[in-house]
Amino acid sequence: MAAVDPDPLLFLRRSIISNKPPITTTSADLSAEAVDNLAVATHLQFKESSHSFTLDTPTRFISSDKPVDLRSIYFAWQKQDVAIPEYIASAQQLNEELATRDGSAKVQNLVFVERLDLITWLQGASEESEYIKGLDTDDSAARSAQLASGAVGGVSTVPSSAAGARAGKTVDPRLQEIYNGERRMGDRNTVLRGIKPT
Questions:
Q1: Summary count for the chain: helices (H), strands (E)
Q2: What are phi and psi of 27, to 5 degrees?
Q3: Distance separating alpha carbons of residues 153 and 7, to the nearest angstrom
Q4: Using one digit for the tens of pLDDT, what is the confidence trace for 151-191?
Q5: What is the pLDDT confidence band of residue 92, given thresholds at 50, 70 and 90?
Q6: Which of 43, 46, 89, 157 is the 20 to 30 Å CA partner of 10?
């Protein structure tokens, strides 16, 4: 099994849920001092798990068919209680500060629905988000989908009635008992007029 890269979104979610938010710093060193200004900060550190991520790290959160960087995710979470116009103004101000320091860094302005979905997921109020791609290592969902469709493993299909079972096939006795308990359906005429005695 290959080594799995740590997911910054999961680390951020766990730290928010456990009420131990991460800190922004200017280096990956875990002993680095916290910096409040996102324009100056370069790393997001999770003290509890001893992990550090650069703020430019792309995440699994997708907006406009592109992954959103960790800086934009963290900024959206910091501004969760702020009204939309103030959030947009703060994002523009931060982008101006980032442009003077480092021309390549930029905070992506998330649409209201994306921001709401992200904050709900980060706080643990929902277990899934339509904007967050699944982990590549979690193939259990794909495996169960294949099992459910009958593509791999599982139980072979059985005819829906006892009459449909051919002489060559054997039907599980418990399943046969269930089939015998089902109501027999006829065509429209049989249902309306009943069965004529022979």
A1: 7, 5
A2: -150, 165
A3: 31
A4: 555 444 544 454 544 555 677 777 777 777 777 667 777 77
A5: very high
A6: 89
Dihedral of the alpha carbons of 102, 50, 69, 115, in degrees to the nearest 10: -120
Place of tokens 């169960």: 144
CB 74 within 8 A of CB 38: yes
Identify whether the C-beta of residue 35 lies closer than 8 Å to the C-beta of residue 41. yes
Tens digit of each residue's pLDDT (9 = 90 or more) over 46-82: 877 788 888 888 999 998 889 999 999 999 999 999 9
What are φ and ψ of residue 25, in 5° steps? -135, 175
Tokens matching residue 154? 């599982």
Give the whole-angstrom CA distance, residue 111 versus residue 10: 21
- Please spell the DSSP secondary structure of 87-145, one letter per residue: HHHHHHHHHHHHHHH-TT-------HHHHHHHHHHHTTS-S--TTBPPPTT--HHHHHH
pTM of the model: 0.65
